[in-house]
Design brief:
This protein is mainly alpha-helical. The chain has 6 helices and 2 strands, in the order H-E-H-H-H-E-H-H. The longest helix is centred in the N-terminal third of the chain and has 10 residues. It is globular and about 35 Å long.
Length: 130
């Protein structure tokens, strides 16, 4: 299979509501970053219908600045990806797919620590029942 076909197969493997980066794709198929960016940017209209190109963002989570920017923004938001108004995926580790088999977001959910019961206080007018 060609590197281009490998790239399109990887992009198709990005699940709904998740993103990957040009860097991840370039590393995975063993091609230069610039080539991967160019291949994604120059997909035909037919390919754009079948390949979820909008799920590919820059390393820091920024979406494209080209003619399809608004479409990419809208599609990601519709799929549940949190995109800031500036066009950057919020909480990138939560949405990132790296194709290495391990979940990218290794943070444990923050669970509230149990709070000790507050000592009973005497309000005015209450008498001690000892």
């Amino acid at each position: 299979m060609s590197k281009r076909a490998d790239l399109l197969t990887l992009v198709r493997a990005v699940p709904i509501g998740r993103v990957t980066t040009f860097d991840v794709l370039a590393q995975k198929i063993g091609e230069p970053l610039a080539l991967v960016q160019s291949l994604i940017a120059h997909l035909s209209e037919d390919e754009r219908e079948f390949v979820p190109w909008h799920r590919v963002v820059a390393k820091g989570g920024a979406i494209g600045r080209g003619p399809h920017r608004d479409q990419q923004f809208a599609r990601l938001v519709r799929e549940g990806v949190q995109v800031l108004p500036a066009g950057i995926v919020h909480d990138m580790p939560r949405f990132l797919v790296t194709f290495d088999g391990a979940p990218q977001d290794t943070r444990k959910p923050v669970e509230p620590e149990p709070q000790p019961a507050a000592p009973l206080s005497r309000s005015r007018g209450m008498k001690s029942h000892r």
